[in-house]
Amino acid sequence: MLYKIRKMTKTFKNRTILNLEQLDIEKGKIYALVGANGAGKTTLLNILSFLDKPHTGQLDFCGEPVLYGNHQLLKLRRKVVLLDQYPILFTGPVWKNIEFGLKVRSIPRAQCKKRVEEVLNLVGMGDFFHAEGHKLSGGETKRVALARALAIEPEVLLCDEPTANVDAENQAIILNILQQINSEQKTSIIFATHYLSQMRRLASHTLTLEHGHLSQQKKENSYTCTVITRKENGLLCYLNDAVSLFFAGNSHPEVEKGTKIHIDPLRISIGKSKNSLAENTLRGVVVKIEQNNTLIRIDMDCGLRIRVVLTKDEYRDLQPQVGEKLQIGIPDEAIEFSP
């Protein structure tokens, strides 16, 4: 396990801004951290990057308790890098900005130059080697800051709103880079975002914070799974003996009678028709719509109650009404089995 958190709290001016009873984060995965402004996302990232410490509770990293001694913190901070939402570049050329972390680690000059060139090419800015850092656009600054973070080859990359205030072209480039380094280098990534589309595209796991607490979404779409047919390419199941779904990929040998299944409401797509929806589609009726901070929760009756979560923009585009019949799509990555 990469991180293990138990009974962690963080307070500020007598107000509890983070209160996590239990959280486990696996190695080599991409986690999206979502929630409204003030939900505690940045506070959690600062703690996970060992730049801040909780007031109470236990934090383990790679199986070892974090005790916050100077020697241990230095060692841990060389494994974990935080890419700030508003990165600052030093005065001078781009290459000096990227070289900084390497020089601190006493990497030889020739090796530094080679590594700087490698990461600049990785982020698509090989021609900016001698460019002045303070003259770059917002998107270019973020990509150079990402290159600076990747230059030291961290085991864990934490990103606070990596595409905020960046044009669409640079957003796509940054997301592709994150996907690439996770796939090729097995870098563990945790990124905070307001964009559910980015979460759905990149993340294998989602953490939702509400007022400093982990959301109880796992209780919202939890059902009992009964196997109908087990095949090499997937599994056909009944949920609550009411609705059948096919889960592709493998035969899921861990699924037995009475196994619980969770469907992540953030990953469910919804529309007027089946076009562009996931393979598992269900037709249902909207029975409830409510707003919670920046997210809209829609309850559907599809033979069983299923909750879907949308952003305000997605809600405005769809304009669903209570009583309206809609289609929902459930992608494989929205599914999680548990005993």
* Main sheet makeup: 6 strands, mixed
Q: Any guess at the CATH architecture of the largest domain?
A: 3-Layer(aba) Sandwich
Please state the overall shape, judged from the principal axes of the Cα atoms.
globular
Q: Strand order, biggest sheet?
A: 6-7-8-3-9-10
Output the CATH class name of the largest domain.
Answer: Alpha Beta
Count of extended strands: 20
Task: Kindly describe this structure.
The protein has about 350 residues and is an alpha+beta fold. The chain has helices at about 40-50, 70-75, 95-105, 110-120, 140-150, 170-185, 195-200, 310-320; strands at about 5-10, 15-25, 30-35, 55-60, 65, 80-85, 155-160, 190-195, 205-210, 215, 220-230, 235-240, 245-250, 260-265, 270, 280-290, 295-300, 305-310, 325-330, 335-339. It folds into 2 domains: about 5-215, 3-Layer(aba) Sandwich (Rossmann fold), CATH 3.40.50.300; about 215-339, OB fold (Dihydrolipoamide Acetyltransferase, E2P). It has 8 helices and 20 strands. The strands form 4 sheets. It has a 6-stranded mixed β-sheet with strand order 6-7-8-3-9-10, with helices on both faces. A hairpin with a 2-residue loop joins strand 1 (about 5-10) and strand 2 (about 15-25). Helix 3 (about 95-105) crosses helix 4, helix 3 packs parallel to helix 5 and helix 5 (about 140-150) runs parallel beside helix 6 (about 170-185). The relative contact order is 0.12. Pfam families: ABC_tran (PF00005). Keywords: ATP-binding, Nucleotide-binding, Sugar transport, Transport. This is ATPase component of ABC-type sugar transporter. GO terms for molecular function: ATP binding; ATP hydrolysis activity.
